[in-house]
């Protein structure tokens, strides 16, 4: 563990909690079930690594490279992931509650069923990400790029989506109760059967959006708001 190059190493199941691994090359490493609670991995290279079932709660992963990593069922709750790269990573069923993911790159990542309750995703790149069934209740997604993302059946209740880009996103069956969608770009988005009860859609762009079967009990609708075809 003294060297900076740990690419491909088998560290599965080890207790590395509180360790300083900043700048380490852990690309392709086996970290299945590894305990990294409170560890510092700032600017570390964890691309293509297997972190499934690992505990990274309260870890520092600022600007870390986690592209193409397997992080299914990983605990990243309350971790600091500012500007971290998760491009095409598997984060299915991961726990990211109250994590700081501001300006992180999650483009094309798989977050199916992940928990992001209260997470900070301000200005994050979630373009074409899979968030089907994810729990984003009370998350801050302001100014985030969610274009073409799959948010079907996701829980976005009380989420802040102000100024977010949701163009061509799939929000079918999503829970958007009391969500802040002020100035959000929802053009060409699929909102069929979404629950928009109490949502704020002031100045939102809903051009060509699919709203069939969606709840119309919104707190503040944009001017000219209507279902497609009306």
Structure in words:
With 230 residues, the chain is mostly loops. 0% of the residues lie in helices and 0% in strands. It contains no helices and no strands. The radius of gyration is 18 Å and the shape is elongated. The mean pLDDT is 93.
Quick summary:
The chain has 230 residues and is largely without helices or strands. The chain has no helices and no strands.
Secondary structure topology:
Layout: no helix or strand
* Separation, N- and C-terminal Cα atoms: 64 Å
Percentage of helical residues?
under 10%
Mean pLDDT: 93
Determine the number of helices (DSSP H or I, runs of at least 4 residues). 0
What structural class do the secondary elements suggest?
A: little secondary structure
Strand content: under 5%
Please report the total strand number as a whole number.
Answer: 0
Summarize the biggest pleated sheet.
Answer: none
Shape: elongated
From the alpha-carbon coordinates, what is the Rg to the nearest angstrom? 18 Å
Q: List segments where confidence is low: pLDDT < 50 over at least 5 consecutive residues.
A: none
